[in-house]
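It is worth pausing here to work through a concrete case rather than discussing structure prediction in the abstract. The textbook approach is simple: state the sequence, then state the predicted structure, then interpret. We follow exactly that order.
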Amino acid sequence: MCQKRKETTDDYMGEMAQTDLCCQTEIFEPSCLANNCVIACDIYLSLTPVEHNLNALCSYDKGAHLFLPSYVMRIHGAKQQPEAVKRAPRKQLQPLFEALDTLGNTRWRVNKRVLSVVHRIWSNGGCLADLVDHSDVPLPEKQETEDEALLKKWKWKLRGVKKENRERHAHRYDIELKLAVARKMKDEEGFYYPHNIDFRGRAYPMHPYLNHLGSDLCRGILEFIEGRPLGKSGLRWLKIHIANLFAGGVDKLSYEGRIAFTENHLDDIFDSADKPLDGKCWWLHVEDPFQFLAMCINLTEALRSSLPETYISHIPVHQDGFCNGLQHYAALGRDKLGAAAVNLVAGEKPADVYSGIAAR
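Step two, the predicted structure:
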C-alpha cells in the first residue's frame, strides 16, 4: 500500500479522489506502477469519465465539469489562442458550445463481455490481441572476447533490448491506466465525456485514457448506453463494419463484397462470440481485435434473436473521412480525377490515393 503524498489542495473533492485511488492500488500491476503511485494519484481526476450530467458550456473556461476547470480549447501554452477565444462574441461561440455539449451529453458504458476477455488475457501475461507481454526481453550476455566487432555488435543488441523493454514498460503502464478506469466505471449506469477542441476545431474528449477516440482496446470496451433497433440499414452496417475491422484488404472491397465476406464467415463469428479464448480464436488474427470481438458478439446476438432487425444494438460503428485536405482541394478545383482518388465521388470500391500515386 503506498502512502498518499501530503500536499495542499483547494479542492476537497480532489483530496477525496486521490485518497480513493491510493486505497485501491491493487488495481494496478505492481511491477508497473508500484513506484509511481504518486503520479497516479495526481492524474486520477483527469482520467476518470464524468458520472453526472454535464454543465452546459457558457464561456472559455466555464462548463462541463462541476469542480474541475474546463477549457473550451486546448492551447498547449499559446497565449494568443485563449485571448482570441475570450474576445469572440458569445453569439459567435454559441454553436460551438452547443456542439460540444451534444458530444459531452452522449452516455457511454463499459462492454463487460469484452472487458472480461481483456482481463483474462492480461491476467495470463498479455501477449495476445496486441496487448504487451508482461515480461521483459532478457538482456544479452556479454561475450568473453576482445574482438571489437563482436563487442560492438553486443552493445547494439543490448541497446535495442533496453529500448524494447522501456517501450514495454510504457505500454504496460498505459494499459493498466485504461483498465483501472474501466474497472472503476464498469458497474456505473452510464457516464459522460466532456469535450473540447484543438486549434483546428477538432473535438476530443477531455479524459485522455479510456475514451472512444482511443486505441482498439478503448474502443472495444466502450459502447453507447442508449441502444437503437438495427433495422435493415443497421444490420447491413454491422456486417460492413466487421469486414472493415478485419482489414487485410477486405476493407478495400465494395460494400457488397464486404457483406459477402461477413456472411461467408458466420461460423467463425459465432465461434469468436461464444468461445473467444477457448475456440478457434479467429478474432485474434485481425487488425483491430477487441473492436472486432465486440462486433462479433453484437452480430451473433442480433442474428440469433427472433427478428434481427429489431435487435437493440449499443455498438458504435466508427466512420472516418479519407484524406480530407485533398478532398477539399479536389472540390475547390472541380478536379474529377482527384475527387475519384479520394472517394469524393461514388465508386464500386474504395479508392486509395496513396496506392495510386505509388503505382505511377
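Step three, interpretation. The first strand starts at residue 55 and ends at 59. Confidence is low (pLDDT under 50) at residues 1-46.
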